[in-house]
Design a protein that fits this description.
CATH topology of the largest domain: Alpha-Beta Plaits
Number of strands: 4
Number of helices: 6
Structural class: alpha+beta
Order of helices and strands: HHHHEHEEHE
Number of domains: 2
Helix content: 25-40%
Radius of gyration: 20 Å
Largest sheet: 4 strands, antiparallel
Strand content: 15-25%
Strand order of the largest sheet: 2-3-1-4
């Protein structure tokens, strides 16, 4: 991947609906080579897909919660079971395997505290093998970008 590919990616991260003609102009290519590069980035899996950026609050899920999970034991069986369950729970937007004292960091969205409590009681704490749960609720989002640094 070269500097032109990175420019293409950055432009698409800012506006995935940009026309190929406009994209080509912004990265100083003619349309045919620009389209070939985009297709190649898609084929290589560098561009994994396209999506709409939705206003979380207007959608009705204003609450962001970050949950740190520690498993009872780090056995392959518990790890696989936990990760499999996480994939099935739609409120979990992101899950990271972590270093340090906790095993996982989850980003969860909810419409309010009552819903989050229900989520905890009915979904998250039902997963076998969880040793501890530490929850942090956000006041506000200070920064969220969708473009990688150059």
């Amino acid at each position: 991947m070269d500097a032109i590919d990175r420019k293409i990616i950055r432009e698409l991260q800012e506006n995935a609906r940009i026309s190929n003609q406009d994209l080509a102009e912004r990265v100083n290519l003619s349309p045919s080579p620009c389209l070939r590069r985009v297709r190649n980035l898609e084929k290589q899996g560098v561009i994994a897909g396209y999506t709409a950026v939705v206003d979380q609050e207007k959608y009705g899920l204003p609450l962001n919660v970050f949950v740190q999970i520690r498993l009872e034991r780090q056995t392959e069986e518990l790890i696989n079971a936990f990760e499999s369950k996480v994939h099935d729970i739609e409120e979990i937007m992101e899950c990271y395997l972590m270093t340090g004292s906790n095993d996982y960091l989850l980003h969860i969205v909810s419409d309010n505290l009552k819903s989050y409590e229900r989520f905890m009681r009915e979904k998250l704490t039902k997963i076998d093998g969880i040793g501890s749960v530490e929850t942090s609720i956000t006041f506000s989002q200070i920064k969220k970008v969708h473009t990688f640094p150059t």
